[in-house]
Design a protein that fits this description.
The structure holds two protein chains of two kinds. Chain A is an alpha+beta fold. Chain A contains six helices and five strands. Chain B has 19 helices and 30 strands. Classes of the chains: A alpha+beta, B alpha+beta. Bound molecules: FE2/S2 (inorganic) cluster (FES) (2 copies).
Amino acid sequence: MTLSISLTVNGVRQDLAIDDPRVTLLDLLRDRLTLTGTKKGCDRGQCGACTVLVDGRRVNSCLSLALSLDGAEVLTIEGLAKGDALDPVQQAFIAHDGFQCGFCTPGQIMSAVGLLNEGETGDDPERIREGMSGNLCRCGAYAGIAEAVSTARRLRDETARPLRDEDETRRIA
Amino acid sequence: MSGGDDLITRGMPGATAQPGAGHPRAAPAVGHPHPHDSAPAHVSGRALYTDDIPAPRNCLHLAFGLSERARAEVISMNLAPVRAMPGVVDVLTAADLPFANDVSPSGDHEPLLCTGEVYFHGQPLFIVVATSHHLARRAARAAVVEYRDRPAALTIDDALAIGSRLEEPIVVSRGDWQAGIAAGTHVIEGRLELGGQEHFYLEGQAALALPAEDGMHVHSSTQHPSEIQHKVAEALGLPFAAVTVETRRMGGGFGGKESQGNALACACAIAAGRTGRPCRMRYDRDDDMRITGKRHEARIDYRCGFDGEGRITGIRFDQYIRCGWSQDLSLAVADRSVLHADNAYYLPAVQITSERLVTNTASNTAFRGFGGPQGLVGIERVMDHIAATLGADPLAIRQANLYGGPGRLTTPYLMEVTDNIAPELVAALAERSDYHARRAAIEAENAAGPIIRRGIALTPVKFGISFTLTHLNQAGALVHVYTDGSIHLNHGGTEMGQGLNMKVAQVAAEVFGQPVSAVRITPTHTGKVPNTSATAASSGSDLNGMATRAACETIRERLAAFAAERWQVSASEVRFEEGTVRVGAGTVGFAELARAAYQARVQLSATGFYATPRLQWDRRAGRGRPFFYFAYGAAVTEVALDTLTGENRILRTDILHDVGRSLNPALDLGQIEGGYVQGAGWLMTEELVWDKAGRLTTHAPSTYKIPACSDRPRALTIELWKGDNPEDTIYRSKAVGEPPFMLGTSAFLALSHAVASCGDGSLYPALDAPATPERLLRAIDAQRGEPW
Ligand code: FES
Ligand code: FES
């Protein structure tokens, strides 16, 4: 039986026929919409590599059935930048070397955006780390990730000004 | 460097931010903390990994059918139900393979598909080719396989009982170790069990094979494209020249993609050959964890004599290495355990025996450190045990035994340690981290008997750099300069997150005096640089950096000779610097020069080659110079341990690490920090459990606990040791991939310190790894005289 749903993905409305009720949002994004920026690390909700925002909230897209998301608004890593202008979270990940192999990075960044939207961490590094603990990074880039999230939090407050040189070189000073 | 709540001063002492830093044109190429070359692509999801390459038209997907037994004979395999499943296009067994059925990296035979005998739970039996990944996997489960079980050897003890080994034990010794032990005023004995470790590269194994007109092109997530090329060619009955392999990047490798990608690439190539259609394969995470090899489990038995100061007089190690079912890279891994049994310590009389045991488990393979960590943790345990015996500070015992002083610089394998900085480095870290005062404070606090105990430990690392298989220490590069002045760079190394491409690009930029942004790094490709070694043994930038420099210098010399003639100056008056070319008193743009040289018919393309000098090694005899140099480091870790639950956390870590003259401090810091986290994970939380049937029960991150963001030290400082590599390496830098992994040993021994505080000092805790909460609780109760 084929069912159809309509989703808004990165601002673009998509009407999609779904022939298997088991299709996950992750497979839909990667295989049907060729949005391969969202990664599959475990396919069972345990690594966070597949994190996207659904109606502004972060979810593991490998655990979300596409059919259950009719009418939802999905934001993936590909839709985060405004044209050439990177989101403050993206900028901060570059400035703080918040990655090595980069495979967890899209998930980390979307999770960080979700975390900042939740607005619960304040500037408490402990709560930032806790809030990011659902996103595994096997390269162990956690220091850079945590720094990036707290910098991004500050940058957002300062109305998304672009990073200055001091931000980029701060960490080796 | 005091321990504030969230102190993170990653950085070189004395380094200051340079004005304009961050702008490529102003930045010096080598030594500058350029971010990873793919940084913008990574943060925007544009970085393609093997499974992200858009599916070519008609692409088919593969899955393996896996053995459900650890050791058995396959009596029958009914695959008709598999063929009948939706979407299935083809099913292959060993009998269908047209040529070689072999994926071994070592010349030993390791079948791609089982030929009647099953050797581990999860061994590939057949290949399903279907129209989608999910359909292939679903179909694979429809097979009806009948087995006749045979006795399986799963553990080190099982293998020892039946004498199941890859080769006769290797014995390396120097001096009269028996007399040495007997000469000690004290003698201790002990056993340390070390668990394995799953790589958990976040990107699982993946390959994509594209049939070409007269050969095969393969994309593979591999650290070793040349080996994939060879294995695929053999599987297809083609000359190597008919197969090309390409690797843009990996989502982590850590050694797990040195040989473990062979099976997927061969399967895809064979299926693509049969069907004439592109074929791709990726392992699901739990398949990946079941099928692929891991870090070798090890048992280290020791007997050690020492004097009243804790100086070792003689020592014997028996290392038992669990290799799994096939050889893979195990001999070289076990060799490295032997070669690191001394770590940074002089052992006056020593014997190391190494058993390489075959078991019916996944075939263990390369993993960051490549056997070195197992050997190293063994001697660190001994240092701790000596200290406990004498009631001394373990750091003092370590310092008493470090290499150094007249006649105390020879390794057990007779290589002289000529670059020893361990004593200064350890002393410097002890001082900077305020080790002694903190240890005293912790002991005083623990003496009051709180529920939460703290522990602290400082451990050094000395790690040998080079492949111990000497011929692997070579590399090539290919460089083109185009007439617009842009530089195309290809080298034999692969990028897995370590930042190799950026480091090598920095080398090229430095030679040409151009900004790093002028250098375009291209995917590793066997058609561009042939006969490469795996990107492994931490050697990526050492080898490929040198080869790249050679290629760039060839072109630069041609350009200089041309400019000298054109503008009538001597070649030495042509200098490539600061983004331009100085010719005598004038300057010419690099692009302009390239264009002019082209018009004068000067070749602007060159290859470069490098072979590490002065290596020679006899592995059976255990004698020679297996390493070009050593990399050093040390870490102090402080932990808190809840004695009621065994839960624990790292409070503070201070690291001082030697990377020679850093090519890129930002990337080096990342490697050090990531290595430490991974090493601590191995020894603290990452536990692999097999059931009695030989089934891996921890095949997902739900049950296999790798460190998360919340597990990293509350306070972490990393400093780079200031000092050039005395050997002539690329800009006097040192390799950095593996050595920091072993810094995690300090976390393990800090836990041991916390546990010991629960007793009266008469019983050494002798923790095994990983030190899970269960093990810690058991050790705490043993300290309290309530063993269970
Ligand atoms: S892929 Fe979804 S959580 Fe791992
Ligand atoms: S950067 Fe490699 S897993 Fe996070």
